[in-house]
Amino acid sequence: MIDVDGALAWAGSEVGSPVVSHERLEGGMTSRMLALTHDDGAATVLRLMTNEPWRTHGAELTTREHEAQLFLAGTGVPAPTSIALDADGSACGVAAHLMSRLPGRPAEQDPDVAAMAALLADIHALRPDEPFRTYQSWAWEAKWVVPTWTQHPGSWERAFEVLAGTAPDFGPTFLHRDFGHRNLLWADGAISGVVDWVETSSGPAWLDAAHAASNLAVMIDIEPAVAFLEEYAAHAPEAMHPFWLVMDTVGYLPPPGKPQMFRQPEQVARLDAWLHHVVGIG
């Protein structure tokens, strides 16, 4: 059971100043994210890993984010600073991670895709001493079912054929693994922060770029997604392979028996259009 009061007391103890106010941040598919203000004026963010299936793996996820932020503290990437970790939930009731709060807000519309691409290239240029876990595909074979709502059933069938083949070779790269405009903070027209490092991995650079493009395509439109990929290609160490675009897009399908991730009809339609587009690349 979540002990919010206990979690706030723990956060205050770790900072050395009690929490005087808190508010829930928007988003947070995996977690309850709380913006905390401390008596001495310090501003922090507390991740409480509350939502299944991530809650079951909360210790691993929060530890990975903690370790990623420790590594990033010595780089130019604007990531939060890890302050304290309660991976086993002994203080908070669930796995928890306390970190610094960065300025800025997500850009819901018209993000600067050139700035996004340049930052992602900077992330991919980093080389931790110990590689993070190998990336996981979110396009599980159980999801390879043509959705009933599609206008392009043949494109989905083609996508599943692509994924059933051999993945292309790639040079392992440091990945955010959930990079996208919704995990970026913006202030004064510039990117002020990159958040949500629980999925940090090692894998193909284009998988990170594909995920950012898919988010743009589904949440905004195809045009900024294509523009982002063009911008990233100017920085990428390897040529784009459409396999990674297909893998990421299929990953948005729900497992059998689960509801569709996107509740708004226009988002489902844009996912359908994006998949149709990416299977036509190459």
TrEMBL record:
Bilayer-spanning residue ranges: none
Protein name listed in UniProt: Aminoglycoside phosphotransferase family protein
Segments forming domain Aminoglycoside phosphotransferase: 23-242
Source organism superkingdom: Bacteria
Pfam family, one: APH
Lineage per the UniProt record: Bacteria, Bacillati, Actinomycetota, Actinomycetes, Propionibacteriales
Listed SUPFAM superfamilies: Protein kinase-like (PK-like) (SSF56112)
